[in-house]
Amino acid sequence: MNADDATPSNDLAGELRQLIRTSGPISVAHYMHLCLTHPQHGYYRKADAIGASGDFVTAPEISQIFGELIGIWVAATWQQWGELQALHVVELGPGRGTMMADVLRTLNVVPGLQEKTRATLIEISPRLRAAQRQSLADYADRVAWAESLTDITTDQPPVPTIILANEFFDALPITQQVETADGWVERTVCLDSTDALVFSPGDGAIRETRRDALRRGAPSLMDDLHALARTRPTALIAIDYGYEGPAHGDTLQAMQSQSYAAVLENPGRHDLTAHVDFAELATELQSAGFITDGPLSQAEFLAGLGFAARLERLRQGKSARDTNVIDTAAHRLVADPGMGTHFRVLGARSAGLPPLIPFPARREPDTS
Ligand code: SAH
């Protein structure tokens, strides 16, 4: 038995063993779900997962340029929609709240827009919610929290809504299937003869889908998005690392202290994510009534929003040493190969809205 698992503090390992002993192997999706969101021992109960001192670093924590360019995108989209009287900006999985603070500050580029905007943060972790409250203290009068999108689908009157999701979809559980002599079967987590957690036997090809997580629940995340798209102008951008399907093998990964860890060791102590299949996400969003734009690489998306000009502005008046720090961080966001190419941005808009900025207009089908 893994010595670390045996310590009383890793209660989730013990609970998982008990669960598997009494009810049999659990699916990879169920394992991921419990590791991340278990009410006592889930990873998101932990305080400082994100940021330089945490287990992983995300784009908004690397450079303020990221959130500022998202803010510019929000402002440009609002202008594109005809400068409506009110705007609702919603963020899925806002982490430490850094990106939303950068977005709201940047809305100042359009006089009066910040005052017309309210923000809702959809966050599952109580500790991260507390961190967000701190980051957003300056905007306390226009920020609210919700457990899920369901809480805002019935808002009256419906307000045009922009939904932001950076590294949110990768945290939703994936279902894995493994190819065996009997065909594709669901991959599970079970116990070996030494009582250690292991994947179900089978070393064939692996394929993944996130469809169950997107559609689970009544209403599901996709039901809620559909309800928003039906009742108000709605746009969404999803930024994540991933690929455009189909099947890409096993992408489930664990991160602890910014290094890869073993997926089945120390459950609940490390972040578990899996790559986003953007083709699948686009198809799901289309079924929910959206038209999708992209995906673009993160580098293309940020360049299209004026990355170079924003960087120049941030460097102005700074010492050589500071500009160096600013440059290094900013260039990490657009590195090729690196975040600039591994991360993609998918846009989605409700019917009747023009193509989102800065996605290239889709060529209309040739009818001549
Ligand atoms: N967007 C942030 C954080 C990314 S980490 C950043 O870029 O820094 C994933 C975030 O999603 C965390 O805030 C996590 O608590 C949240 N999260 C994960 N699953 C969730 C769910 N089902 N509902 C709401 N929030 C969730």
How would you characterize this protein structure?
There is one protein chain. The chain is α/β, with parallel strands linked by helices. The protein has 16 helices and 17 strands. The protein has helices spanning 3-6, 11-23, 28-37, 59-62, 64-80, 98-106, 113-116, 126-135, 150-153, 211-215, 221-231, 278-287, 298-304, 307-315, 320-333, 339-342; strands spanning 26-27, 87-92, 117-122, 143-146, 161-166, 175-180, 183-186, 188-191, 197-199, 206-209, 234-243, 253-256, 259-261, 271-273, 276-277, 290-297, 343-350. Strands 2, 3, 4, 5, 11, 15, 16 and 17 form an 8-stranded mixed β-sheet that branches. It has a 3-stranded antiparallel β-sheet with strand order 1-8-9. Strand 12 (253-256) and strand 13 form a beta hairpin. The model is unreliable at 1-8 (pLDDT under 50). The structure holds S-adenosyl-L-homocysteine. S-adenosyl-L-homocysteine is lined by residues 44, 50, 58, 60-61, 93-95, 99, 122-125, 128, 166-168, 171.
